[in-house]
Amino acid sequence: MKIAIYSRGLDADQGTPLQILLQELADHNIGVLIYKPLLTQFSLPAHLLENLTPFEVPEDLDEELECLIGIGGDGTILDSVTMVKDSNIPILGINFGRLGFLASISKDEISSAVDALVNRSFIIDKRSLIH
């Protein structure tokens, strides 16, 4: 399994939940493409860096991706749509922001969200994009 992680940027105190997410993915042997500006924002442990491949533009994402995880708030989810474009890659939103209408999974639910990805026990909610 291969996924991508995108964020517009996180606060300094949000590095720990990011590390928890990366550790959960590593524990399940999931290949991770991570948005390069996000990767350079935090000093991650070496054992987590081994499993990460940076990406910078939507063209760096390939059809083999099973999902793009957007971490942040609803604005991040909207930006994530521009990353996946019309590739039909589903977006999983993890709310590191305040409200989270689109990113409805909280930081506390990271483990169960990764388990749902691995076990494919999730429901894809189709959304329309208005230009």
Structure report:
- The chain is α/β, with parallel strands linked by helices and 131 residues long.
- Helices cover 34% and strands 21% of the residues.
- The chain is built from five helices and six strands; from the N terminus they run E-H-E-H-H-E-E-H-E-E-H.
- The protein has a six-stranded parallel sheet with strand order 3-2-1-4-5-6, with helices on both faces.
- It starts with a strand and ends in a 12-residue tail after the last helix.
- The model has no long low-confidence stretch (mean pLDDT 86).
How large is the share of residues in beta strands? Answer: 15-25%
Rg over alpha carbons: 13 Å
Subunit arrangement of the protein: single chain
Q: Report the strand count.
A: 6
User: H/E order of the elements?
Assistant: EHEHHEEHEEH
Helix/sheet category: alpha/beta
Whole-Å distance between the termini?
32 Å
Query: What can be said about the biggest beta sheet?
Result: 6 strands, parallel
Mean pLDDT: 86
Q: Helix amount, in percent?
A: 25-40%
The parts where pLDDT drops under 50 for at least 5 residues are none
Helix segment tally: 5
Global geometry? globular
* Biggest sheet strand line-up: 3-2-1-4-5-6
Index terms:
globular, 6-stranded parallel β-sheet, 131 residues, 5 helices, 6 strands, alpha/beta
How would you summarize what this structure contains?
The protein is an alpha/beta fold and 131 residues long. The chain contains five helices and six strands. Helix content is 34%, strand content 21%.
